[in-house]
Amino acid sequence: MATQQVRSAARKPRAKTSQSKSLDANAWAEAGLLELAAHGIDRVRVEVLAKRLSVTKGSFYWHFKDRDALLAMMLDQWRRRATLALIQRLDRGGAAPLDRLRELLRLPMQAERSARAAEVELAIRLWGRIDPNARDALEEVDELRLQYLTQLLVESGARPELARARAILAYSYQRVAPTLIPADAAGLMQHCEDLLIGLAP
User: Fold this and answer.
1) Exposure letters 156-184 (e unless 16+ CB within 10 A, then b)
2) Dihedral angle over CA of 69, 82, 149, 169, nearest 10
3) How far apart are CA 107 and CA 96, in angstroms?
4) Cα–Cα distance measured from residue 34 to residue 71, given in angstroms and rounded to the nearest whole number
5) How do residues 117-145 score in pLDDT, each as one tens digit?
6) Are 35 and 52 a contacting pair, CB within 8 Å?
7) Nearest 5°: phi and psi at 64?
8) DSSP E strand stretches across 79-150
9) Torsion of CA 194, 195, 198, 201, to 10 degrees
10) What is the DSSP letter of 110?
């Protein structure tokens, strides 16, 4: 009888605490960003994400005090991945400023990953219309990106007094170009870049 009880216990699923430990906070934040992009901020709820991740709600409360803590981590993860990590990667490569600038301008038009990132960003911008924390994160990210574009433009030969205005135009171009320029239109893409950078006659 004792042997049967031992075997029965061995077949039971692991305790919730083990499951909670195995799923880290980053996984919840990533799931939150995906849900945000697909359905908007109102759908970013604990029970919805638990179902997406195939875990119990107890796993969520192992990592977060409440939903607001998750939302804060989602914004921080997006800020780091979509801006800070990207800038570090570009600078670490050692490419010339002009080459880094061209790579940056072309990023939104590269592959499915860029499309997913654009969906997340659009969802955050919509969220920012109704939430001050999301709005603050967006303003910080926009300023960081504009500063970096301005820096690259100056290092590429743009007149300093015009660099900020060119950076705003370049940033606007990044936002809309993927919907206007075919991915295989390399000549048109380069001509647009030359105009923005100030290399075109």
Assistant:
1) bebeeeebbebbeebbebbeebbeebeee
2) -90
3) 17
4) 12
5) 889 999 999 999 999 999 999 999 999 99
6) yes
7) -130, 145
8) none
9) 90
10) S
Are 59 and 50 within 8 A, CB to CB?
yes
pLDDT score of 38 more than 50: yes
Residue type, 86: L
Q: Tell me the residue range of the domain where 4 lies.
A: 1-64
Q: Are residues 190 and 91 in the same domain?
A: yes
For 139-158, the pLDDT digits (tens) are 999 999 999 999 999 999 99
For residue 3, the domain's CATH number is 1.10.10
Q: What sign for the dihedral angle of Cα 181, 182, 187, 190?
A: positive
Please check whether residue 171 is in contact with residue 146, taking contact to mean a CB–CB distance below 8 angstroms.
yes
| pLDDT surpasses 80 at 71 | yes
Question: Which two tokens mark 147?
Answer: 């500063």
Residue 44 located in a structural domain: yes
Intra-chain end-to-end CA distance of the chain, in Å: 90
> 60 and 81: one domain?
no
CB atoms near residue 75 (< 10 Å): 24
Structure tokens at 91: 């600078």
d(CA 184, CA 182): 5
Residues 99 and 179 in one domain: yes
DSSP 183: T
CA distance 197 to 101: 8
